[in-house]
Every structure is written in structure tokens, then in C-alpha cells.
């Protein structure tokens, strides 16, 4: 019979292959980038070095360019002193720094004695290096992927490099390429530091708190906790101590040091997820660690504004050029905490020109 012909199943199989090819990426979870043993050991060496040198209060040279095959030189700036604490701006990106021009205006004529910049750029992506204050501020980086522990590693790499680079770095602000400033640098600096602190050569860090979102009552907390499998996080991370929060934060120096020294929780959070749709390690590791180790040293809220009202596939609302206005900036600044928001995300790259048009008269006019 015709229906029993061997050509029919073969034809149907060939016909189904393109359909499977098109649908597979939507049905199957994306393959997570594994953290190789050499990368793990490389990072461990960096973290140990940052930890030991930070504890000894040594001052280190500025980090090398992205062409360097090793981490920043340990050549000490002998006799270098600084009477003012600095903010380390840590840019984590897998694309061009779309708003580099706006950030350039943000820093303006500010003295480099008040800030440092460090950029972790995914080496698998071609990125046009920005000039100005961003020039030669790329650190040796490794590939990153959403919903994987590689983003934790990248943030820790930035923290460790900044700890090594300058002992005056007192606050560490993690920023994405989609973030914009909502105030002038002067406003941000004086929000983070009490004015009297700028006259002191030693910084009593115990008076500072980290600005990091720490939440314990999210409806998705159970799914996120079990993303690697049921009870996999035990015994290091019991469910009642598991927390969620924003990926972007501002940490004190003592908390940055705590993060790079930590080993126990990392053994759990670096495990691959079985349910990628519930897996956001970078939103779990830092809030959980700091909540377990020093909850009173954290504000439990972030200073980076994000609009989740119409999120898509785990991504927040992306602002487009027609939405950019003075009213939007004023609205994004507003907060329920005792501090206004200092930064905001997520903005599409084509928002740059509309933002530059209102930069001087709105964004940087506090």
C-alpha cells in the first residue's frame, strides 16, 4: 500500500526538522556557560590577593588595560596618600557603553581623587572602547550570560580589582550599560559620604551602610530557591535565609571585602540551574550573603530605580526616546526610602540624544 511506503516517514521527518530547529530555542532552556576549573582557580587567586592586600591596607597601582593578560600590577604607589574617600564605579556590560557621553558629563571636571572607573566587558562580544574618563579602564574579563553564575563572578572580579587598585575606594557602585545617572556627581558623592568624612584620612567604615535591595517576601522566592533542584541549597542556604534583590548595588568597602573572601555560599550558587526561567543567581547571591552576614549593615533598598510594571521575560521596562522628559527624571528620582534614587535603568541606546538635551538643565541641576 502507498501508506506503507518507506518514503512517507522519511518525508515527514525531513519536513519536521526545520520546525524543530525553529521551536527548539523557545522550548528548551538555553545552555548555561560553565565556569571552568582554570577560570575558577584564576578568580580564586585574584580574590585571595585582593583579600590579603586589602586587609594589609596597601595601596595599589591603577589597573592595566584590557590587553593585559594578568590582573593589575602589585607595584605600590609608595608614599601615596589620599584624605578623601572615593567611589568606585563598576560597569558590567556585554555591549557598548551606550551612555558613555552622558556619564562623561556626569563626571565632568570632578577630580580623580574622588572616583575610579572599572569596566568588565564580555570578551566574546566586540565592544567599541570609549575614550575620555573610560579610556584604559577595562579589566581582564571573562564571558558572561544571563541566568548564570558568571554574572556573580564578573561582579566579584570588579570588586576585587577595585579593592586592589586603590585603598581609598570606600564605596563600590555596580552599574550596567543601560544605567543613567539621575543627579550630578557632587550630589551622589555627598549622598554617600557625610561631609565631615571628606576631611579624614582614615574612614570609619562601620558608620557606612551598603545600599542593596534585600527582599524575603517575593511570591517567586520558592521557585527561585529550588531552581537548581529541591533541597540542593542545603545546608548552607536554608530557605528561610534565602533572599532576592536587585542585581545592581552600592557596597561599602568592608562588604566588598566580605564578598571577595566568601567561599561557602558560592559552592551552592555556582551550581547550574535546572529551571533557567527561575534562575537569576546575581539577584540572589549578594542579597542572601549580606542578609546572612550583616543585615544591619545594609539599607535593604537599592539606589538604582527600575520599572518592573510591564516586565517581559524577566527584563524590566525599557524607556524609549518619546518617554524621555524632565518629568520622567523627576519621577525616577522619587523614592519611599530616606534617599532619592541616584541611577536608573533600563534605557534604550537611542535615548542618548534626548537625555543629553536635558542633561545640564535637568539631570545634573540638583
Automatic annotation (TrEMBL):
Instruction: Give the UniProt entry's GO cellular component terms.
Output: membrane
Q: How does it sit in the membrane?
A: Single-pass type II membrane protein
Q: Source species, please?
A: Ilex paraguariensis (yerba mate)
Question: Do you know which Pfam families this protein is assigned to?
Answer: Branch (PF02485)
What the entry lists under InterPro entries is as follows: BC10-like, Glyco_trans_14
Q: Where in the cell is it found?
A: Membrane
**In its keyword annotation, does this UniProt entry include Membrane?**
yes
Membrane-spanning residues: 6-24
Q: Does the keyword Ribonucleoprotein apply?
A: no
Q: What is its main location?
A: membrane
Can you say what this protein is called?
Answer: Glycosyltransferase
Instruction: List the Gene Ontology MF annotations in alphabetical order.
Output: glycosyltransferase activity
Q: Give the UniProt keywords, A-Z.
A: Glycoprotein, Glycosyltransferase, Membrane, Transferase, Transmembrane, Transmembrane helix
Amino acid at each position: 500500500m502507498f501508506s506503507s511506503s518507506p518514503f512517507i516517514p522519511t518525508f515527514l521527518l525531513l519536513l519536521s526538522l526545520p520546525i524543530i530547529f525553529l521551536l527548539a530555542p523557545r522550548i528548551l532552556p538555553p545552555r548555561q556557560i560553565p565556569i571552568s576549573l582554570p577560570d575558577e582557580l584564576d578568580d580564586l587567586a585574584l580574590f585571595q590577593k585582593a583579600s590579603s592586600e586589602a586587609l594589609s591596607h596597601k595601596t595599589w597601582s591603577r589597573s592595566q588595560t584590557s590587553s593585559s593578560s594578568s590582573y593589575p600590577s602589585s607595584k605600590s604607589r609608595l608614599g601615596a596618600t589620599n584624605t578623601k574617600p572615593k567611589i568606585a564605579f563598576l560597569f558590567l556590560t556585554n555591549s557598548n557603553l551606550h551612555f558613555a557621553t552622558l556619564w562623561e558629563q556626569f563626571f565632568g571636571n570632578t577630580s580623580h581623587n574622588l572616583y575610579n572607573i572599572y569596566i568588565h566587558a564580555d570578551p566574546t562580544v566586540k565592544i567599541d572602547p570609549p575614550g575620555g574618563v573610560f579610556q584604559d579602564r577595562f579589566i581582564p574579563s571573562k564571558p558572561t550570560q544571563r541566568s548564570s553564575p558568571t554574572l556573580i563572578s564578573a561582579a566579584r572580579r570588579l570588586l576585587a580589582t577595585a579593592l586592589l587598585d586603590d585603598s581609598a575606594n570606600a564605596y563600590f557602585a555596580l552599574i550596567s550599560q543601560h544605567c543613567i545617572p539621575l543627579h550630578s556627581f557632587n550630589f551622589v558623592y555627598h549622598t554617600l559620604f557625610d561631609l565631615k568624612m571628606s576631611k579624614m584620612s582614615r574612614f570609619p567604615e562601620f558608620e557606612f551602610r551598603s545600599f542593596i535591595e534585600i527582599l524575603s517576601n517575593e511570591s517567586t522566592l520558592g521557585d527561585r530557591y529550588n531552581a537548581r533542584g529541591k533541597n540542593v541549597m542545603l545546608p548552607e542556604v536554608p530557605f528561610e535565609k534565602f533572599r532576592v534583590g536587585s542585581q545592581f548595588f552600592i557596597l561599602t568597602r568592608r562588604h566588598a571585602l566580605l564578598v571577595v573572601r566568601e567561599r561557602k555560599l558560592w559552592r551552592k550558587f555556582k551550581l547550574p540551574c535546572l529551571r533557567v526561567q527561575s534562575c537569576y543567581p546575581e539577584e540572589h547571591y549578594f542579597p542572601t550573603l549580606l542578609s546572612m552576614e550583616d543585615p544591619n549593615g545594609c539599607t535593604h533598598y537599592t539606589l538604582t530605580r527600575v520599572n518592573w510594571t510591564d516586565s517581559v521575560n524577566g527584563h524590566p521596562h525599557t524607556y524609549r526616546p518619546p518617554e524621555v522628559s524632565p518629568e520622567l527624571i523627576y519621577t525616577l528620582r522619587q523614592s519611599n526610602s530616606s534617599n532619592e534614587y541616584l541611577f536608573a535603568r533600563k534605557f534604550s541606546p537611542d535615548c542618548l540624544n534626548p537625555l543629553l538635551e536635558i542633561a545640564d538643565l535637568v539631570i545634573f541641576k540638583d
